[in-house]
Design goal:
The complex is a heterodimer of chains A (285) and B (417).
Chain A lengths: L9 E6 L8 H9 L19 E6 L9 E6 L14 H5 L5 E3 L6 E3 L9 H5 L6 E2 L26 E2 L5 H13 L12 H5 L5 E5 L6 H6 L5 E2 L2 E5 L7 E2 L11 E4 L3 H6 L7 H5 L11
Parallel strand pairs in A: 1-12
Antiparallel strand pairs in A: 1-8, 2-3, 4-5, 6-7, 9-10, 11-12
Chain B lengths: L14 H28 L14 H12 L2 H11 L6 H25 L8 H4 L6 H25 L8 H12 L1 H24 L11 E2 L2 E2 H29 L6 H36 L4 H5 L7 H20 L1 H4 L2 H28 L15 H24 L6 H12 L1
The chains are: A alpha+beta (285), B mainly alpha (417).
Bound molecules: iron/sulfur cluster (SF4) (2 copies).
């Protein structure tokens, strides 16, 4: 009797037109995952924010100014050609970060990480955080820590895990009940906390899941750039730094062209050529 | 006081004067040791590194000392494998400098990691895909080889050499040294290269990433090449400094000219390859990822085109050509300028490949990150320098490091008498 045999590929879609920048995702993520904070949080470059909300503007002056808030968890890259060698995984000398071929989740093994920080250097999204200090909780607050997530000690790197412990709980339950896990059984903390409903989470390998239906990932490599696989066939959907070949599993969506353009770097004139190019509408996959 | 230990016939300064010098440098060393313990006991929050600058001053120092320590493997290769016998006059010193550089690099790594007690995980849980794994293995093995190369020199100390076993051991070790030199050159090729690969494989960092040959990015080959090219410059520079401090000529001109000439040709050919690499990266690799060259050198307070110009031309092509041309090479002042520029050049290259890589924003809405090291970082970076000075001073005083010393200084001493 084997259950949960299908290879999942968990992914996320964030609708930037819905996101209000309220920061609920950041807060819920910290609470859910026992993310420590510093006594003085004014120096942001060594704060730990698995989920971080960036503020982007179109650079125009009033009254044409537009602002968008872009939540950025770990992008769970599947690497060049979608082979699982994400930027951080392939460089870690101690195999302390790993790619789950059955889930598409990039994991972090805290007890194996020895803090060389090479993975942080390799990640262009700054999604990895180092524990510069041992975590300290204000008196009594330890009681609020989640028992499902181990707190991390000083000197190791941590990052968003797509709330992997929630997946484990859901998987165990499904296993006991002899069935596959269902879409709503496994959702990340940020997805459930977002008051605007801007985040959709699910299995990109499962055509019945909402995230897959909106993203419509193209299973074939992009013509002209074989490094890129899984490009969205939805013209409003894009990924961050897609052309580098990181093949992230976090997709973003916006009606606005300048927002989509901000997702990557383009040479002069390049954007005009590529802005209407999306994965093939007709797919074999 | 310690005259029984000093090589026969060699003149050394008075013992108290020697100890005074050691004490001054020792004070700096202790300052570094204090900072090192702070980092070990309090953690890396003692540094100014952050999540943007995960690799900072130390990793630069680490790569820089390994590059300039490259004189050891390259001189060893030339002497023992290519049988350039003239280099026997400088090989001992090159090995000592290499030993200092590599032990310093290992020490820096021990301070640099967030969980020093787990350092062995890199061997135990090794990820064969990681360039850093390759670095760790080759670096440790090569350090062992350098130690083996250093031992016969230590055993030749006047008192130790009286012990018949040590005398014969040293003699026999010399006999088989070619095997270790070959092993050392092989290991160095891979770890110097994989240090280059560390940056080159980061495909999420368009400033660092390079096209690859087989599994190795171009930076792999460039790093090895540059260490072999610039390493001898550092050997010559330290020789020069030692000569200035001791007031003696320690290595004959013929040897110096030969090593400078080899270094000059290596630098010049390396620079040609590096310039081709830079042009290809700037015109093909970076644009294919959406970047213009300007992106990497503008909109910030520090990293301008000057750094590229300084690395490639002022501290690259210029010293290379100066050492190739006989008249400048054999002019002591010009040669000194060239080797200083060369050492700066290779250190600048390592700086760029470590620190500029992290400063450059990659996401279109991200900003440049600049960083200033904390005093703890500076102290622990100075620590290996102080340690190196002490080790050189002790080796010079008690070991027969320079085979030509007596012969070169005879006329001067005879004239003085
Ligand atoms: S976003 Fe960064 S940390 Fe996450 S998988 Fe990609 S490279 Fe690794
Ligand atoms: S910091 Fe930890 S996870 Fe990152 S590369 Fe080093 S050992 Fe691996």
């Amino acid at each position: 009797m084997i259950h949960n045999t299908k290879a999942h590929k968990f992914g996320m879609l964030i609708d930037l037109d819905k996101c209000t920048g309220c920061g609920s995702c950041m807060v819920s993520c910290m609470a859910e995952n026992n993310v420590p904070f510093k006594e003085d949080e004014s120096r942001k470059k060594d704060s730990i924010t698995w989920m971080r909300v960036y503020k982007l503007t179109n650079g125009k002056s009033f009254p044409d100014t537009e602002v968008v808030y872009m939540p950025r968890p770990c992008q769970h890259c599947s690497g060049i050609g979608d082979h699982g060698h994400s930027p951080c995984v392939s460089v870690c000398p101690a195999t302390a970060t790993d790619y789950g071929y059955d889930t598409g989740i990039v994991s972090q093994i805290y007890t194996r990480c020895f803090g060389c920080r090479y993975c942080m250097g390799a990640c262009p999204y700054h999604a990895r955080y180092f524990n510069w200090w041992d975590p300290k909780w204000p008196e009594g607050m330890e009681n609020y820590l989640s028992p499902n997530v181990s707190p991390r000690m000083r000197g190791v790197v941590e990052k968003c895990s797509f709330c992997y412990h929630r997946y484990q709980l859901a998987k165990d339950k499904a296993y006991a009940e002899e069935r596959e896990i269902e879409e709503m059984e496994y959702q990340t903390a940020c997805t459930t906390a977002c008051p605007a409903g801007a985040i959709t989470f699910g299995d990109l390998n499962n055509p019945a899941h909402k995230v897959t239906q909106i993203v419509k990932p193209d299973p074939h490599p992009v013509p002209g750039n074989p490094k890129v696989v899984g490009k969205s066939r939805n013209p409003k959907v894009f990924r961050l730094l897609e052309r580098l070949g990181t093949n992230t599993k976090v997709y973003y969506m916006s009606e606005r062209e300048w927002v989509r353009k901000a997702g990557d770097n383009y040479l002069d004139g390049e954007w005009d050529k590529v802005k209407n190019h999306h994965g093939a509408e007709t797919s074999h996959g | 006081m310690d005259s029984a230990l000093i090589p026969e016939g060699a003149k050394r300064c008075e013992f108290p004067k020697f100890m005074l010098g050691i004490a001054v440098v020792g004070a700096v060393l202790l300052w570094g040791v204090y900072a090192m313990f702070l980092c070990w006991f309090k953690g890396l929050n003692q540094t100014n590194m952050n999540d943007y600058y995960g690799f900072a001053l130390w990793i630069w120092a680490d790569l820089a000392v390994i590059a300039i320590g490259g004189g050891a493997f390259f001189t060893g290769l030339l002497k023992y494998i290519f049988k350039i016998d003239e280099l026997k006059n400088i090989i001992n010193f090159a090995v000592i400098i290499g030993f200092i550089c590599y032990s310093s690099a290992l020490l820096i790594l021990a301070i640099d990691i967030g969980q020093p007690l787990r350092g062995w995980f890199i061997f135990w849980h090794a990820n064969v895909h990681s360039m850093l794994t390759e670095v760790a293995y080759c670096l440790s093995c090569y350090f062992a080889v350098l130690t083996i190369e250093f031992i016969p020199n230590i055993l030749e100390n006047r008192q130790l050499n009286k012990v018949s076993f040590f005398h014969h051991l040293a003699h026999n070790m010399h006999g088989v040294m070619a095997i270790f030199a070959a092993t050392g050159a092989f290991l160095s090729f891979f770890h110097q290269g994989s240090l280059g690969g560390v940056a080159g494989v980061m495909f999420g960092r368009p400033f660092a990433v390079r096209e690859s040959l087989l599994i190795w990015p171009w930076t792999f080959f460039l790093f090895t090449w540059s260490a072999a090219a610039f390493g001898p410059c550092f050997t010559l520079l330290v020789t020069k400094i030692t000569e200035a401090i001791t007031g003696k000529k320690l290595v004959g001109d013929k040897t110096v000219h030969l090593l400078a000439k080899i270094s000059g040709w290596m630098i010049t050919t390396y620079m040609v390859a590096k310039i081709i690499d830079t042009i290809y990266w700037a015109t093909v690799t970076a644009p294919s990822l959406g970047f213009t060259l300007d992106h990497f050198y503008s909109n910030n307070a520090f990293y301008g085109y000057w750094i590229l110009f300084a690395e490639l031309i002022v501290c690259g092509l210029v010293p290379g050509l100066m050492l190739v041309v006989k008249s400048t090479r054999e002019n002591p002042k010009m040669r000194l300028i060239a080797i200083i520029l060369g050492v700066i050049g290779v250190c600048l290259n390592r700086w760029v490949m470590v620190l500029q890589v992290f400063a450059v924003p990659v996401m279109s809405f991200d900003n440049w990150a600049l960083y200033i090291p904390s005093w703890q970082e500076v102290a622990t970076t100075v620590l290996p320098v102080a340690y190196g000075i002490i080790l050189i001073a002790v080796s010079y005083r008690y070991l027969p490091v320079f085979p030509q010393e007596l012969e070169l200084n005879k006329p001067a001493e005879a004239a003085a008498e």
